[in-house]
């Protein structure tokens, strides 16, 4: 058997064919380059006319949607900040009104308490004055009766000690001089 030497460009087929690997065959370079140029051209035209415009449209649509979403987000953020500021302002105003109402209520209650205290003091002063008048009357009546009691007691003592020799006028004069 003869020894077959194979180079990298030659291939021994089982069918008995031997030859060079087709991409490396220099006799087919021109047709390979032609088909490469035609395939590349078709692929380029297909990409330029169909795929890239669709991808570009999709990217543009996404870019516009993202822009609109960002604008909407900024608008909503501004609205929420404005609503928060309005809420804070209304809360501050409500607190101020509550403080004003509390101050007015305190002032009204203080005035009411002062008026009631004044009425109570006036009523108490009137009762005190009435009581002092009654005490004065009772005192005057008691002092008026003291003289009579003193005269009667003196008359009873004198009559039991000395007898009936002293008159009522003398006893009254003696009690009056003893005061």
Helices and strands in order:
Layout: E1 10-12, E2 18-20, H1 29-161, H2 168-178
Antiparallel strand pairs: 1-2
State the gist of this model.
The chain is mainly α and 179 residues long. It is 80% helix and 3% strand.
Helix content: over 70%
The tally of helices reads 2
Q: Name the beta content range.
A: under 5%
Mean pLDDT: 85
- Helix-strand pattern, N to C? EEHH
Q: Report the structural category.
A: mainly alpha
- Outline: rod-shaped
Q: How much is the radius of gyration in Å?
A: 67 Å
Largest sheet: 2 strands, antiparallel
In total, how many beta strands? 2
Question: How would you write the strand order of the largest sheet?
Answer: 1-2
Intertermini distance? 183 Å
How many domain units? 1
Poorly predicted runs are 1-13
Written description of the protein model:
This protein is mainly alpha-helical. It has one domain. Helices cover 80% and strands 3% of the residues. It has helices spanning 29-161, 168-178; strands at 10-12, 18-20. Strands 1-2 form a two-stranded antiparallel ribbon.
Descriptors:
single chain; 179 residues; mainly alpha; two-stranded antiparallel sheet; disordered N terminus
């Amino acid at each position: 058997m003869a020894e077959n030497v194979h180079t990298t460009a030659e291939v021994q087929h089982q069918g008995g064919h031997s030859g060079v690997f087709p991409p490396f065959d220099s006799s087919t370079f021109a047709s390979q380059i032609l088909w490469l140029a035609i395939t590349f051209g078709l692929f380029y035209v297909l990409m330029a006319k169909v795929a890239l415009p669709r991808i570009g449209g999709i990217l543009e649509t996404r870019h516009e949607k993202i822009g609109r979403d960002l604008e909407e987000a900024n608008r909503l953020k501004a609205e929420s900040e404005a609503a928060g500021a309005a809420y804070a302002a209304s809360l501050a105003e409500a607190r101020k009104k509550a403080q004003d109402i509390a101050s007015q209520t305190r002032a009204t209650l203080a005035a009411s308490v002062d008026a009631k205290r004044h009425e109570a003091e006036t009523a108490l002063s009137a009762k005190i004055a009435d009581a002092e008048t009654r005490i004065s009357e009772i005192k005057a009546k008691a002092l008026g009766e003291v003289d009579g009691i003193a005269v009667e007691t003196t008359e009873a003592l004198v009559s039991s000690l000395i007898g009936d020799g002293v008159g009522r006028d003398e006893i009254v004069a003696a009690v009056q001089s003893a005061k």
